[in-house]
Design a protein that fits this description.
Distance between the termini of chain A: 59 Å
Number of helices of chain A: 14
CATH superfamily of the largest domain in chain A: MetI-like
Oligomer: heterodimer
CATH class of the largest domain in chain A: Mainly Alpha
Number of strands of chain B: 20
Shape of chain A: flat
Shape of chain B: elongated
Number of domains of chain B: 2
Number of helices of chain B: 10
CATH topology of the largest domain in chain B: Rossmann fold
Strand order of the largest sheet of chain B: 6-7-8-3-9-10
Helix content of chain A: 55-70%
Largest interface: A-B, 29 and 47 residues
CATH architecture of the largest domain in chain B: 3-Layer(aba) Sandwich
Largest sheet of chain A: none
Radius of gyration of chain A: 31 Å
CATH architecture of the largest domain in chain A: Orthogonal Bundle
CATH superfamily of the largest domain in chain B: P-loop containing nucleotide triphosphate hydrolases
CATH class of the largest domain in chain B: Alpha Beta
Chain lengths: 317, 402
C-alpha cells in the first residue's frame, strides 16, 4: 500500500465521555489493610486463649469423673466396693487388684457376648460401607429413571426412628426364622445404617469432577471399574468416618440387641443382665464396661485422622 | 482408523433445549475435522454423543459402518481429550497413560512398553512416576493427550484441548498436534472456539450455530465462499464487516447504496455475481433496487485523502487503532450502521457494531482521527437479507493481503 496519509479533516468529536482518572498516592504510602478475620477464625482464636482452655479442661475432667470412678471400682473387690466409696482407693492403693479382670476373662457369658458383639458390629459396618458406597455411586453417577425419587426416599428414611420398626421387623425375622439370632441384629442395623450412608457418600461422590468420571468411561472402564478405580479412592475419608460412626453405634447398641439378639447376646446385653432389682454385680459390670469401651476408643484414636478430616473438609478451605 | 457417519443426529435435552438439530456429516478415514461455533452451539454435545457419554434423541452414529448409538463408550473404540484434562490425580503419569490399556486387559509388559513409547513421543518419559499435581499445565495437557493416543483408537475426540494453555504453549502444542496427526493418521474430531486453531489444524471445518450445521469445508472454502451470513461473520479474524445496502441501477452500471455511501459495483459485476442481476431491476431502468447484505473483509479498505467528494468513500472517525506491529487495524462506526440480524433469537456471536479496516501500518492514524476509507468492492460478499444465504460469486474473491 502506498502511503496515503490522511490529513485530519476536522477536530474529532468526543466519542465517549472521558473517564475520570483516579488520583494515586505516591508509591509505598498505601496503608496495608488486613481483612477482618472470618467468624470461624475468630472463634478458633477465642477458643485457643488460656482462660478458655482452663475452662475446657475443667469441663472435660468433670465429664471423665464417672468413668474414672468406674475404672477405679473395676480394680476393687466386690466387698470393698460395697463397704466404701471408690475414692478411698486414692489414699489406700493397696486395695487395687486385677482379680475382677481375671474373673471376667474366665466368665464365658461375658467373653462369649463380647465375641457376639464383634460378630454383629463388623458385618454391620462392612455391609453398610459396601452397599452404601455402591448405592451412593449409582445415585450420584448413573443415569436411570427414578433416581432422584430413590435418593429423596433414602434421605427421608434417615428421619425414621428405630423404634417404629421393632415390631414389624420382629414379625419379618420370625417368618425368616432368624428372630433372636445374630443375622437379625445385623439386618436391622444395616437397614437403619444405609440411608445415612447413602446420603453422605452420594454427596461425596458428586463432588468428584464429572470429566474425570467420563474420562474413565471413555478410556474403556466399565461402570464398576469407574467406581472401584476412580471414584472409591477419593472416598476413603468419608468411608472412614462413616465406618467409625456405624461401628460405634452398633457396638454400643442395647435396644436392638435386647429385641432381636436374645439368643446370641452382645456385650451390652450381657452387662445389663448383671444389674438386679435391688443391687448389681459391680465387680462384673465395671470391668466389663471398660473392656467394652476399649475397642471403640482404640478405633477412634486410630481413625480420628480420617474422622476429623471429613468433618472439616470444606469447612476450613 | 475409521470413518464416522452422522445421520440426522439430534439431541434434545431435558426441558426441551435442542442442542443438535439433524446434523449430517461424514468424516473420512484419517481426516482431521474441526468443529467451531459460538458457545452453546452444540459442538461439545456432538463430541460427547460420538463418545457415548450422552444418548442420542434421534438419528444414528456409524463408526466404520457399524451403528454405535446404543453402545457404551468402552465398545466404541474412541478416545477423548478433555478441556481440563481430567487426569486421574491418584495415579502416576505412567498409570494415567496406561489406564485404557489396563481396562482392555493388555499384558503388563505391553502396557509398559506402549505407555513408554507414547510418553517418549510427547517428551514425558522423565515424568513417568510423577502425579498430575506435580506437573505443569502443559505437561498435564501432554499426559491427557498420551492417555488418548496410547491405544491408537479408531476415533480421537478432542474438546478444546488447548484452551487452558497460555498463548505461547498453545501455538507450540498446535504444531505438535499436526505432527501427531501426521504420524498416526487417526480420524480426529476437534472442538474449538478459536478459529486460528480451526484454520490451521482442520482438513475440514464444520461450523455449527444453534445446533445446526451451517457449512462444512476446507478452511480456504469457508473463508472464500461462506455459505451464509453466520459463517461469513464467524470465519476470519478480524471478522468480516457486514452491513445492509441496496443495489440501484444507474445509466452505466449498478451502485451499492448504503446510507450516504454510494459506490459503483466493479465492471463485469454481472459475470462475477450472476445472482445479483435479478436483484437490481436494471433491465427496466427502474431505481427500485433490491436489498442485500454486503460484506467486506478488513483488508478490502484503503486509506485515502478525504478531500475528494467521492460518494464511494467512507468518511468516519477512528474509534480505536490496534497496532500489531506489521499490521494496523482501525475500528470505526460505518456511516450506514453495521449489520444486525433481525431474528430475535440471535446467538451471542453478534456481529460487532464497529467495522474493522486493515490499513498501512505506517499510516499516522490515532483513535479519534477523522479518516477516509475506500471500499474495494471487487472483494465484496453479498447475501440475501431474508434467507441470510450467500449470493455466490462466480470466481472466489481474491485473497487480499495488505
Amino acid at each position: 500500500m502506498t502511503s496515503q496519509r490522511s490529513a485530519p479533516v476536522a477536530p474529532p468529536p468526543p466519542l465517549l465521555e472521558p473517564m475520570p482518572v483516579p488520583e494515586l498516592e505516591p508509591a509505598g504510602t498505601a496503608v496495608r489493610v488486613e481483612p477482618r478475620p472470618s467468624v470461624l477464625k475468630r472463634l478458633v482464636a477465642i477458643l485457643g486463649s488460656g482462660a478458655a482452655r482452663v475452662f475446657i479442661i475443667v469441663v472435660g475432667l468433670f465429664w471423665l469423673f464417672p468413668t474414672l470412678g468406674l475404672a477405679v471400682a473395676s480394680l476393687r473387690t466386690a466387698a470393698d466396693n460395697s463397704a466404701t466409696g471408690w475414692w478411698t482407693a486414692l489414699t489406700a492403693p493397696s486395695q487395687l487388684t486385677l482379680d475382677n479382670y481375671a474373673a471376667l476373662l474366665g466368665n464365658e457369658r461375658i467373653t462369649g457376648s463380647l465375641w457376639n458383639t464383634v460378630l454383629i458390629a463388623v458385618p454391620s459396618t462392612v455391609l453398610v460401607l459396601v452397599l452404601g458406597a455402591l448405592g451412593a455411586y449409582a445415585l450420584a453417577w448413573l443415569d436411570f429413571r427414578g433416581r432422584d425419587v430413590v435418593f429423596v426416599l433414602a434421605v427421608a428414611l434417615t428421619i425414621v426412628p428405630v423404634q417404629v420398626a421393632l415390631i414389624p421387623d420382629a414379625a419379618v425375622f420370625r417368618a425368616l426364622g432368624i428372630f433372636g439370632d445374630i443375622p437379625a441384629v445385623i439386618a436391622f442395623h444395616v437397614a437403619f445404617g444405609l440411608p445415612f450412608a447413602v446420603f453422605l457418600l452420594r454427596n461425596y461422590f458428586l463432588g468428584l469432577p464429572e470429566d474425570m468420571i467420563e474420562a474413565a468411561r471413555a478410556d474403556g472402564a466399565s461402570e464398576f471399574t469407574v467406581f472401584r478405580r476412580v471414584a472409591l479412592p477419593f472416598a476413603w475419608p468419608a468411608l472412614g468416618s462413616l465406618a467409625l460412626f456405624q461401628f460405634l453405634w452398633v457396638w454400643n447398641d442395647l435396644l436392638v440387641a435386647l429385641v432381636f439378639g436374645f439368643n446370641n447376646p452382645p456385650i451390652t446385653y450381657a452387662i445389663r443382665e448383671q444389674t438386679r432389682a435391688f443391687a448389681s454385680n459391680i465387680d462384673v459390670i465395671a470391668p466389663g464396661a471398660l473392656v467394652s469401651m476399649a475397642v471403640p476408643l482404640i478405633l477412634f484414636f486410630t481413625f480420628q485422622r480420617y474422622f476429623l478430616r471429613s468433618m472439616l473438609d470444606g469447612a476450613l478451605k | 482408523m475409521a470413518e464416522l457417519v452422522l445421520r440426522d443426529v439430534t439431541k434434545v435435552f431435558k426441558g426441551g433445549v435442542v442442542a443438535l438439530d439433524h446434523v449430517n456429516l461424514t468424516v473420512h478415514d484419517g481426516e482431521f475435522v474441526v468443529f467451531v461455533g459460538p458457545s452453546g452451539c452444540g459442538k461439545s454435545t456432538l463430541l460427547r454423543l460420538v463418545a457415548g457419554l450422552e444418548q442420542l434423541t434421534s438419528g444414528t452414529i456409524e463408526i466404520d459402518g457399524r451403528v454405535v448409538d446404543l453402545d457404551p463408550p468402552r465398545d466404541r473404540d474412541v478416545a477423548m481429550v478433555f478441556q481440563n484434562y481430567a487426569l486421574y490425580p491418584h495415579y502416576t503419569v505412567a498409570q494415567n497413560i496406561g489406564f485404557s490399556l489396563r481396562m482392555r486387559r493388555y499384558p503388563k509388559r505391553e502396557i509398559q512398553a506402549r505407555s513408554l513409547e507414547t510418553a517418549r513421543l510427547l517428551g514425558l518419559e522423565a515424568l513417568m512416576e510423577r502425579r498430575p499435581s506435580a506437573l505443569s499445565g502443559g505437561q498435564r495437557q501432554r499426559v491427557a493427550m498420551g492417555r488418548a493416543l496410547v491405544r491408537q483408537p479408531a476415533l480421537l475426540l478432542m474438546d478444546e484441548p488447548l484452551s487452558n494453555l497460555d498463548a505461547k504453549l498453545r501455538v507450540a502444542m498446535r504444531g505438535e498436534l499436526v505432527r501427531l496427526h501426521q504420524r498416526y493418521g487417526t480420524t480426529t474430531l476437534y472442538v474449538t472456539h478459536d478459529q486460528v486453531e480451526a484454520m490451521t489444524l482442520g482438513d475440514r471445518i464444520a461450523v455449527l450455530d444453534r445446533g445446526r450445521l451451517q457449512q462444512v469445508g476446507t478452511p480456504e472454502e469457508l473463508y472464500r465462499r461462506p455459505c451464509n451470513i453466520f459463517v461469513a461473520g464467524f470465519i476470519g479474524s478480524p471478522a468480516m464487516n457486514l452491513a445492509r445496502g441496496r443495489l440501484v441501477a444507474t445509466a452505466d452500471g449498478v451502485d451499492l447504496v448504503a446510507g450516504p455511501v454510494r459506490a459503483p459495483l466493479p465492471a463485469g459485476w454481472e459475470h462475477r455475481w450472476p445472482g445479483l442481476v435479478d436483484r437490481t431491476g436494471r433491465d427496466n431502468g427502474a431505481v427500485a433496487g433490491g436489498e442485500v447484505v454486503f460484506g467486506l473483509r478488513p483488508p478490502a479498505f484503503t486509506l485515502v485523502a478525504s478531500t475528494t467528494n467521492d460518494p464511494s468513500i467512507i468518511v468516519t472517525t477512528a474509534v480505536t487503532v490496534e497496532s500489531l506491529g506489521d499490521e494496523k487495524n482501525v475500528l470505526f462506526v460505518p456511516p450506514f450502521g453495521a449489520y444486525q440480524p433481525d431474528r430475535p433469537d440471535a446467538s451471542d456471536a453478534e456481529p460487532p457494531a464497529l467495522w474493522t479496516a486493515r490499513i498501512d501500518p505506517d499510516a499516522p492514524v490515532h483513535s479519534g482521527d477523522r479518516i477516509a476509507l475506500r471500499m474495494d468492492l471487487t472483494a465484496a460478499y453479498f447475501f440475501d437479507p431474508h434467507t441470510e444465504l450467500a449470493i455466490p460469486a462466480e470466481s472466489p474473491a481474491p485473497a487480499l493481503a495488505s
